[in-house]
Structures are given as structure tokens and as C-alpha cells.
Amino acid sequence: MRSIGEAGWTGASTGTGRRPTYDRATAWVEPRLLAPAREWVAQRVRGRTLDVAVGTGANLPYLRGRSDELVVTDQSAAMLAIAKDRAARERVAMTAVQADAAHLPWPDASFDSVVCTFALCCVPDEVAVLAELRRVVRPEGRVLVADHVESSALLGRVVQRGLDVVGRRHGEHHRRRPLLRLSDAGLAAVEHGSSRYRLVERVAARRV
Questions:
Q1: Which of 87, 141, 188, 200 pairs as cysteine with 112 (C-beta 3.0–4.6 A)?
Q2: For the chain, how long is the longest CA-to-CA vector?
């Protein structure tokens, strides 16, 4: 069983340069688990918006027309090229900037909404990335996160432990829960929810 981390499969945040197989690998799980979380996140976007670790641009159809300005970033130039192609097909106006999720090239408080989906599962330090998302969001803005997390079901957790062992060399983490690390990054949840068996969790957070 493969992992479902966007950056883990595509190299979006890790910069590994692995072949971009994310869209093919998630063909079954995307409409069932990932798409509802993307829609939830997109419904809460407003103003100037940053999508961090955009990967192949799977969020773009959901973000279309929801922000005043859309900026996307990824550490991988190859992933940004794929996202640009998707933006053209979907007629999504955006600016693409190559950058590391933990070292974003914008001043403090630059965006009204900061989005990060299915990428915190595979960055080396999830708190460092969350703190960077907090830094660039405006005081009244929102950090919007969705990711696969430790399941609420025992069987799910057993499977995830095995996946963690298999995926270790790719830097994939199947049992992280960004919701529980928000306070370490200076954030607080204002809204959150999850899929059945908590396979995917979504969070809207504010600065504290």
C-alpha cells in the first residue's frame, strides 16, 4: 500500500527530484479522501492567498476564483512546471515561485490565507513549516491545512505503522497530526474536522 502524501510522492517539498507520479498514484483515493479536504480548504480562502508545496497543482481547480491573488510555491522546479500546465488548462490565474516551505521568501504578514495540503506528512520538520506559514499570514488571516494523519481506527494505525517503516527512506510520515502541533508553531485552531476513521484531517488556524 502506498502513502498519500502529496510532497512525498512528487518531491514537492523535499526537492528529491523523484519522477512526478502523484496524480497517477492517487487516482483512486483523490475523489474519495483528498478532494473533499481540498474543497473544504478552498471554501475558507480569501484575499491574497499562498499555496505552499503546491506539487502538481491538485488544489488549483478548487482555488479558482476564490482569492484576490493566488501565489503558489514548491521547492521542485519540475513540480512547478506541472502546476503551471494545470493552471493553464484550468484557467487559473496564479504566480509560481520556487521556494522551500520552511524558508519562504516573503516578508512577515504577506497573505490573508496560507494553504498547505498533503505536504506536512513528508517535510523534515512539520513545526518549522507551520511556524513559517504563521509568519507569512496576516494577523487576521487563516492558515489552512489538510493532511493524512494518524487514524482513529486501530486497524488503520497498525497499517500506518507498517507504512512508516516502508516509507522511511522517502521521508514519509503517516502518523503525524498537525492539529496537535499548532501551539508549538504559534497557531490555534478555529475550526477542524476529519474524514471517516480520521484518515484525513483538515484545520483552519489563526495566529496567537
A1: 141
A2: 44
Backbone torsions φ then ψ of 96, nearest 5 degrees: -110, 130
Name the pTM for this structure: 0.85
Q: Are 17 and 78 in contact (CB under 8 A)?
A: yes
What spatial distance separates the first Cα and last Cα of the chain, rounded to whole Å?
38
Tell me the pLDDT tens digit for each residue of 33-58. 899 999 999 999 999 999 999 999 99
pLDDT (0 to 100) of residue 174:
85
Which has the closest alpha carbon to 82: 122, 63, 54?
54
User: Which residues, at least 6 apart from 88, have a Cβ–Cβ distance to it below 8 Å?
Assistant: none
Buried b (16+ CB within 10 A) or exposed e, 124-157: eebbebbbbbbbbbbeebbbbbbbbbbbeeeebe
DSSP 129-186: HHHHHHHHEEEEEEEEEEEE---SSHHHHHHHHHHHHHHGGGT--SS--GGGGGGGGT
Please tell me the distance from the alpha carbon of residue 85 to that of residue 174, in angstroms, as a whole number. Answer: 29
pLDDT tens digits along 88-129: 999 999 999 999 999 999 999 999 999 999 999 989 999 999
**197 CB neighbour count, 10 Å cutoff:** 13
C-alpha cell belonging to residue 52 = 505552499
Which contacts of 104-107 are long-range, i.e. CB under 8 A and separated by 24 or more positions? 104/50, 104/52, 104/73, 104/132, 104/135, 104/136, 106/50, 106/136, 107/136
